[in-house]
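Milestone M4 deliverable, item 7.
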Amino acid sequence: MPAWQPKVTTMLLPHLTDPEVLEQLLARAGTAPVHKLGQNFLVCDEPIEAIVSTLTDTVPLVTELGSGAGALTQALLVNNYAVRAIEKDQRLIELLKGHLPKKLRSNLTLVPGDLRDLSWEHDEPWQLVGNIPYNLSGLIIRRLTQLVHPPTQAILMVQQEVGENMTAQAPQMTLLSVIMQLWGEAHLLLTIPADCYLPKPKVQSALVLLVPHEKQLPRAEREQIIGLAKRFFGHRRKQIGGIMKNQLHIEPDLIAATLAETGLEGTARPQELTVEDWKSLAEKLP
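Output delivered:
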């Protein structure tokens, strides 16, 4: 797991991870966390320090998915990153504008709107960060892996179960870990207690680091492998030989040839296969 050390610079700014300060600012703006928007604001410094310390200094362009009340945004700006912050809630946009000094605002581009509908990319090398809504994590990760110009790295706060699924290895693979390993590497940086959020969610979160492979398979080839893996993971408790025969209706001779050529056992289950196994299967099966 990559090491990190805090490097957030001290500046006369509101301490947005202090629950009392945050609640006062929200009240002054006439707003509160909106459940349907997945708004859970950070009230701990450690995840923010971990993100800032993991970012690459030589890549100053950062897209932030959901700036919220601005705790992470503020830390990024203080550390001289040029931030493109996407935020759906107009009240939070106005709140963020109101408490940031002019010097910091010059490095901030606030983009109002839904992150599902807006571009995340930059023409130059860029990084991606975000405290993303639990209900959008799957969509965000799939879109990340399909970007034409991916970030040099992505550092995201997700539900702990999602983080564990993203970083899983054989024999505990998941469809999500297959998707991630075809695209790049996934590392679990930090477990974030529920107490670190306002309001407090029912589950813990995780901070994950995602780094794309320097040389990726073409997107169409990756999607073909993912499509095949999805058909198997729909029956994850069954053995792959049985899935090929009973669910995919593959001829016995082709099943036997496929297992022999890939070196896989028909008794293996989908979660026991590595990403290299999935690549081999995709080469042999229709």
